[in-house]
């Protein structure tokens, strides 16, 4: 544990890249697994630790989908969402853009309106009872193809829950080229949603270019391989297109071989705006505070540097000016008080 840990723990934070089902705590996953004994997911939180060791990215997606399979009723959705916010509140996360995959639930038979009501109900309760502001990014699960794209787009545009701010694309990249999703991103953007696809997590920089030119990406999920293309890095820096970086995730899914090889530092040195994120925290044995510790080590930051990093996430968010200013001011006040101790 680094000496920055207590500072980071109390620091007000925003998280921009974190998956809904992927944030279910071991307790919640175990509880859902016990409710649905036909599943292969362990019902014991201890056994989950081993279950969440991944041989590669494809294995991670298989395990992820086995947990998705446990969420079967609107009440499961509501419980999961509120509990995720509770974990965020414990870490002083004030604001989160949570990536939700409605297709996974509607395809499993959850009524679409009941699904929206469940997440919205949890969002309001989280804000009121926990002081955590949640917003949604609806993502297309890439492996499910154009059918999922059509359905996700329809749900986003036609049902448009109040908390929805963005439209994304997740899952595997290999064999799932980004350009085919252009019509769906065009529709979502025309409806006023922000474009936030994953790209360059498990494939090269061309996927990031495709996300920018074909999908109108305003932020990139992961974008890890961007560092292999100097021109791309310069483009991201110049146009202030942030990368959502999730260091421990990249090691856990074996997208990056070792933490000391993580490209975060190279991104920052190229002047790219970055946000630090936890992705699927319990599955990767991490949380946002730990990711800030990791980033502080990779970037050799002191408390002030960590506070600046937290402000970059606020800057990269889809909050309005007043919302950004409010959290940035909280970060400044907290940091000043900490440094004056
Ligand atoms: O790190 C990640 N990269 C890509 N997709 C992810 C990640 N974590 C969770 N998902 C989720 O995987 C599902 C199956 O496609 C999607 O729902 C996506 O949100």
TrEMBL record:
Matching Gene3D superfamilies, A to Z? Metal-dependent hydrolases
A GO biological-process term: purine ribonucleoside monophosphate biosynthetic process
What is the required cofactor set for this protein? Zn(2+)
Molecular function terms in GO for this entry? deaminase activity; hydrolase activity, acting on carbon-nitrogen (but not peptide) bonds, in cyclic amidines; metal ion binding
| Keyword entries, A-Z | Hydrolase, Metal-binding, Zinc
Q: Which InterPro entries match?
A: A/AMP_deam_AS, A_deaminase_dom, Ado/ade_deaminase, Metal_Hydrolase
User: Which Pfam families does the record match to this protein?
Assistant: A_deaminase
Q: What PANTHER family does this protein's entry cite? A: ADENINE DEAMINASE
Q: Which family is annotated? A: Belongs to the metallo-dependent hydrolases superfamily. Adenosine and AMP deaminases family.
UniProt protein name = Adenosine deaminase
The organism is: Streptomyces solincola
